[in-house]
Amino acid sequence: MIFIGIDGSGPGLRVRVEAEDGVGLSSATGPAVSLTLGTGKAWQMVLETLSAALKPLGQATETLTDARIVLALPGLNLPAQQQLFTALNPLPGIIWTCPDSYAALVGGLGDQPGSVILLGAGSVLAARRADGTWYEIGGWGFPTGDEGSAAWLGQQLVTLTQRALDGRQPWEPLTRLCYGLWGGAWDAFFEQVATATQADYAALAAPIAEMAAAEDALAQLLLTEAGREVGAMAAAADPDARLPLALTGPLAPVLAPYLPPEATARLIAPEGTALDGALRLARAPEPPPAARGRRLVG
Amino acid sequence: MIFIGIDGSGPGLRVRVEAEDGVGLSSATGPAVSLTLGTGKAWQMVLETLSAALKPLGQATETLTDARIVLALPGLNLPAQQQLFTALNPLPGIIWTCPDSYAALVGGLGDQPGSVILLGAGSVLAARRADGTWYEIGGWGFPTGDEGSAAWLGQQLVTLTQRALDGRQPWEPLTRLCYGLWGGAWDAFFEQVATATQADYAALAAPIAEMAAAEDALAQLLLTEAGREVGAMAAAADPDARLPLALTGPLAPVLAPYLPPEATARLIAPEGTALDGALRLARAPEPPPAARGRRLVG
């Protein structure tokens, strides 16, 4: 028996294979997998990265029967999506699937109650109650949700750049930088805006973070607004501010200094990543809970 | 010789055919045409609605040589798009094309200097300077631009509904209405959000306007914010607030009462619509100016 965790919470897929005793056997990374590509294409991409991780072990996906696999992907928090995706499993054995937010929760807090906020291209909070049940806050996706995420930051910046371009507000160093990155000419910028994807917006978070580190006022303002959004998610999950809060994902170190004080006071370092969570779930006696981890209010 | 105006600025295509002496001969309406459908599909849809308008006259598009046609569509303000689209003209004669904002400017103000703001699913300001040249402000498109438009209003409301759904803010009558309109159940709402188009967001503007008319505070707040955005476009076009300003498009009557005072003071009734503008341009001796009507600032 081997244990395999597959995590799609970041900008690319990550696979890790472990032996029964917990020793790491191999790992691989691949391109980002999104269910919006279609279920067949998403499975194909998962299989390719999994194959790469199995190759050094002399294993192939077609004969992978003696394995416990947990696959965590964004988008699996919609029950219909999760059922469809899981039903089309092309592997010979059973594969457990769960939303990436759930893997981040288990990786970050284990079984403890509290919240983990996954901050990457998107953003979502996963919380565990004292009774063990869980729920999500945020994570509604681009372009109306995922507040405070990398794509959300990029969206704000592109809107500000448009406003500078036609004189609704003055140019700033950060909007000039964005204009340059997206073509540096009116036609090129318009074309880029017309075809931009969530990933294109998310790619602007790195230059925003760099400018903020260099004390740029607008970049710091955007990160402060993102931090406020993250704080609003944390406050909704735990209005009494009593339970631990962990940030994970590529944007976590960028936004941690920008959280409001109530959230900062609850902040703990996560035990591990969403990939660690997927491996922990692979070793659990039962499959992860059904996709729906939503707290319905009102 | 007949004159034909074709206007795609609203929720559907509008065609009007006039005789030399200005008498209306026929008209037709069709589905909305967007260049994002692809150039071939967009032309096909234009031809279908044009055919419907020509039928009562015993004319067919294939033999339409003795006509002057102006076709105004959103998206034609990107020069590469306009060149590609115009080059693929399947009609036997010449057809002049222009951005819908330019047709709205000519329809609203004729040759006078001033600004016309086209308020529909999207939003864009077209302004004429005293020297006759023109430029646009806004109109960068969904989801980062088109501030104050119907799609923009719908976007704001969906974000607020998401926040209410997971407890980041209290429910309000308007967010409950939105939740009901978009499925009334968590899964259905999530699915609708995941697949929503600009038109889906724009369709929420009508219920927002109805609730505002019924004194709903949140609906009035959203319209006030939209009015402020429209005011920012007007102020950027004319910082000294000296030239006339006209609003046109389906959202114009909804937003007019919500403009800031500086914009209200400049407000005049438009002479006509974008369709009137297209017909006026069809009678002009020269084709409309090239697509690019952008004022580059800084």
UniProtKB/TrEMBL annotation, chains A, B:
Every ATPase BadF/BadG/BcrA/BcrD type domain range: 4-235
A Pfam short name: BcrAD_BadFG
Highest rank taxon of the organism: Bacteria
PANTHER family attached to this UniProt entry: N-ACETYL-D-GLUCOSAMINE KINASE
Annotated protein name in UniProt: ATPase BadF/BadG/BcrA/BcrD type domain-containing protein
